[in-house]
Amino acid sequence: MTHAAVDDEHGAGRRTPSPIARHRRNTELTLVVMAAMITGAAYAVAALGTNAEIPPGIVVFVGVLLALLLCAHIVVRLVAGGADGTLLPLAAILHGVGFVMITRLDDRLAGLQATWSLVAIAAFVLTLLFVQRTTLLARYRWVLFLAGAFLLLLPMAPGVGRTINGARIWVSVGPINFQPGEFAKLAFAIFFAAYLADRRELIAARTWKVGPIHLPEPRYIAPIFVAWGFAVVVMVGERDLGSSLLFFTLFVVMMWVATERVGYLLLGAVLFGGAAWFSWSQFTHVQTRVTNWINPWDDPLDKGYQIIQALYGLADGGLLGTGLGRGNPNQVPEAQNDFIFASIGEEFGLIGATAVLMSYILIVGAGLRIALRTERTFEKLLATGLTTIVGVQAFIIIGGVLKVIPLTGITLPFVSYGGSSLVSNYILLALLIRVSDSAARRLGELPDDPTTGERWTAWRLSRQIRRDEKRGEQPPSVTGPVEVGS
Amino acid sequence: MNRAIRQLTVGLMACYVVLFAALNYWQVGQKEELDAKFDNTRAVLREFNRPRGNIVTEDGVVVAQSLPNTTDENLDFTRDYPTGDIMSNVTGYFTKDFGSTQLERTHGDVLTGSTAAQQVRGLGDILAGNVDNAGSVELTMRYDAQLAAKFALAGREGSVTVINPQTGAIIAMFSNPAYDPTTFVGQPFETAQQAITDLQNADGNPLLANAYQERYMPGSTFKVITTGIGLEAGVLSRETSFPDEREWTPPQTDDPIRNYNGSLCGGDMATVFRRSCNIPFARTALELGVERMIDGTRAWGIDEQLPIDLPRAATSTFGNVDDLDQQLPLLAIRGFGQSEDQMVPLHMAMVAGAVANGGQMMKPYVVEATYDKAGRVLDRTSPEVWKTPISPQTAALEREFMIGVVESGTASCCLDLAGGIQAAAKTGTAELGVASNPDLSHAWIIAFAPAENPQFAISVVLINVQSTQDVAATGGRLAGPIAQDMLDYLLSGAGAR
Fold it and tell me: Across the interface, do A322 and B49 touch by the CB < 8 Å criterion?
């Protein structure tokens, strides 16, 4: 970006339209409206199924929903016009289905979840507005690392930490409970993308010889061990197996993608296996999970009850589902949370549950496509990390519900009840959209206009220059403060 | 890096393929197995969370209904039986933990609105914002007649069954002992379990309706059948006459057959029928022979499950017929309704009904019609002939004999209907042959009235009765007054229409 270009754009005062960007935004708009309509219809059907009456506030509901999503869409149109047009609608439909399901399961939760939805969309918008350049994130890598570590360990702090349902993953500040781990995963993904973007060659070089094995310099691979240590600490201290698995998978995948060395996958598997075996042999709650996974019918009324009821619900739903509001998903404890996928399978059937799986597949596909399209290493790794978080987290909990892997409590992104999860996932979505837009601009699909912040800086500088020129002094260098890209 | 990202894409997709496979495994592959698991309550819960329609008697009394549930958070509705034990043997019960029976089971689809017809018709209602699609069932049975039957039985073990002989519609069918479903439906689990267990162990098995789910030795009421077979086969006629005798020894034995109380009995057909002599019917059975007796009883629907529109109906039987030609004395005794003959009380009402209806035995039914939510008829039962055991001529002749029973025979004591209405009847006293208690009997009467224009056919049975000083334990003396009460009530009393 040259000084002249900045000056030109400043003069124009608005962004140049591009056919590709317009096409993507119009696709997004259509899909977002469809998502809102589907959600509205599902909301009405669910109320019909449970109370035999169309909810009185249906028009208001659809109106507010549409307003929220359109607000998000307009912000994307304004500040990330080149981004992929499917991510926001996919999140919207998952969010909508989840909201309808939560309302149907327990209408007392509806108000809270609606408030959190509002906060989540606000967080999405603010993230897009504040993070207009991905480099901003890379710049704060160490701050984010410390913040992530702090957040991860916060629930273990006396006073604020809370244990709910056996897992110490909550923090209470005043009336608000939240799960800092949901935000820590974002911080770590950004940190790792930035760290590895700097050092991937050094780590891949393997200059350190231990006997016949070539290893990278210890100081370069230290972070993965620190991360592994963190995962173990989380696993042990907070009894949160799902999050540990997610964090660890994230680190290993990013190491692997950064270095392209499969060895990291193997190393990661061995380390996690070791940790898992250790905790299995040391902790009864881990043993219970494994036993339950192998045969929940050993203890069908107590420990196996939840998963058994989930499977009964899935079977009862069958191909087409019982119909919204017509099943009994409340038989499953925590149906609105970890087990919401079972509720969806019960009432929407195989068809609806498959649609949810497809949505995640499409998000994963779109996210990794962004990683492939972008040319910058940091953005590649960031998109990979963020996508991995969504894809793996959904896999861990759906796999647990479907008895594919041992059940570990973790939320289903965009769908489960819970503010921390919803807000953090919308921030994640905003970051992915930001990377996507950045890639499109880099590829020349739309003009890489300066951001508002850059225009402000440019304006300030040009005024300074004019003032200095009047005084007949030499103009200062402008390359420093106007940092555009990396 | 792009290579690794592509591999990661493939890896994550593979993970989701596994999830998709697992989803199919549980929702399709294992569906039936999971649905059938003993502790899977999904199907029952779904039923309980749906409004369920009423079962209503012919005279408009609601005998089964759903009320909003106020005690159990998981269930939206609870089932209620406002008439207690009066209709329970027909409605059955509908419970979460102990299953459902009778009409509650067989007509559950109508009551919940899930028949195909209701779903199609209900579509408009659902679009109009109404998902309560529950249908209702209207019975042929009259609540007032049930009450009259319960009153007439006065707590004695037995049953009263009244049918319309022209249609087969059941008007009353009350069995003692009966049960009150509200002792366990809608009760807390432990209370309900105890109540059910008590009912299962109770004397007389109240959970089974002895009117149509049990069978008893019919005694002399069976002579209507033997007479019908004999007349149809040409072995008997109005003119047939039997010698006066106290006892008669059939072939293959030295044991003589005696009349009731060892009395001297004989005469023409009308007389032996009216006086209910045993020996003439024993002789008739032997003259007919094994083959014709078996075929004859089959023609009356014996050894075939009663085609009533209720589950678990009993089957009347002529007994074991293997090698019967080597046991002719048994054949002879079965000719007058003893030994292994066992008749379902409802079936005996149908026997009277066949005579009343010119020889046509109608299919018995309790469901008059089913309705959808809006009150439109889904299905109305059309009367059907089940068996035609006798010709109209034979029926007319048997009617004559049965009128004789009332006028001057074994029922002359007790079936003199009010208003001069003529009844036709046959009594039966089935001696159970218990060595320690030789008097123990089932007291029967079957009848229809008015004799010339039959509106009601009835069977009454009192089970395990004994003579007292005042009243001999005979069908006429014990069951007769009950039949009289019922027929009077229905024809000329408060229940007359």
Answer: no
Q: Is the pLDDT of residue B496 over 80?
A: yes
* DSSP string covering B116-147: HHHHHHHHHHHHTT------EEEES--HHHHH
**B379 - beta bridge partners?**
B370
Residue A437 within any structural domain of the chain: yes
CATH code of domain B219-365+384-491? 3.40.710.10
Asked if A108 is an interface residue toward chain B (Cβ–Cβ < 8 A), one would say no
User: Considering the domain boundaries, does residue A455 fall inside one?
Assistant: no
Distance from CA of A222 to the nearest CA of B (A): 21
| Distant-in-sequence, close-in-space partners of A388: CB < 8 Å, separation ≥ 6 | A189, A249, A250, A253, A254, B8, B12
Global confidence as pTM: 0.66
Spatial strand order of the sheet with B136-139 comes to B77-80, B62-68, B55-56, B136-139, B367-371, B377-380
For residue A486, pLDDT beyond 60:
no
- Asked whether B265 and B259 are in contact (CB, 8 A), the reply is yes
Domain coordinates of chain B in residue numbers? Answer: 219-365+384-491
What DSSP line would sit under B391-450, residue for residue?
A: -HHHHHHHHHHHHHHHHHSTTTTT---GGG---EEEEEEEE---TT-TT-EEEEEEEEES
The average pLDDT across A465-477 equals 75
Contact of A117 with A96, CB cutoff 8 Å: no
Per the DSSP assignment, residues forming a β-bridge with A176 are A173
Judged by CB atoms closer than 8 Å, whether chains meet at B8 and A384 is answered as: yes
The A residues from 355 to 414 touching B (CB cutoff 8 Å) are 357, 360-361, 364-365, 368, 371-372, 377, 380-381, 384, 388, 391-392, 395, 398-399, 402-404
DSSP-assigned letters across all residues of A447-458: --PPPHHHHHHH
Q: How far apart are CA A259 and CA A44, in angstroms?
A: 50
pLDDT higher than 70, residue B398: yes
Would residue A465 count as lying in a domain? no
Whose CA is closest to B302, among B348, B364, B358, B357? Answer: B348
Strand B377-380 versus strand B265-268 pairing type? unpaired
Q: What percent of chain A has pLDDT over 70?
A: 90
ipTM: 0.88
Q: How many structural domains compose chain A?
A: 1
B42 contacts A328? CB cut-off 8 A: yes
Q: Do B27 and A353 touch (CB under 8 A)?
A: yes
- Half-sphere CA count of A93, side-chain side, radius 13 A: 24
Is A345 within 8 Å of B4 when comparing Cβ atoms?
A: no
Determine whether the interchain pair B40/A330 forms a contact, defined as Cβ–Cβ distance below 8 Å. no
Chain B residues with CB inside 8 Å of A371's CB? 5
A424 backbone dihedrals φ, ψ, rounded to 5°: -65, -35
- How distant is the Cα of B200 from the closest Cα of chain A, in angstroms? 28
Q: How far apart are CA B54 and CA B77, in angstroms?
A: 13
In the predicted structure, residue B191 carries a pLDDT above the cut 50: yes
Question: Which domain does A148 fall in, by range?
Answer: 17-442
Q: Which tens digit of pLDDT belongs to each residue from B336-378?
A: 999 899 999 999 999 999 999 999 999 999 999 999 888 899 9
Q: Is B6 on the interface with A (CB under 8 A)?
A: yes
In a domain, A484, yes or no: no
Report yes or no: A335 at the B interface, CB cutoff 8 Å.
Answer: no
B130, A380: Cβ pair inside 8 Å? no
Which of A48, A349, A357 has the CB atom closest to B129's CB atom? A48
Q: Smallest Cβ distance to A357: which of B16, B28, B46?
A: B16
Candidate from A54, A328, A350 with C-beta closest to B46? A328
Q: How confident is the model at residue B231 (pLDDT cuts 50, 70, 90)?
A: very high
Check residue A320 and give its pLDDT.
Answer: 85
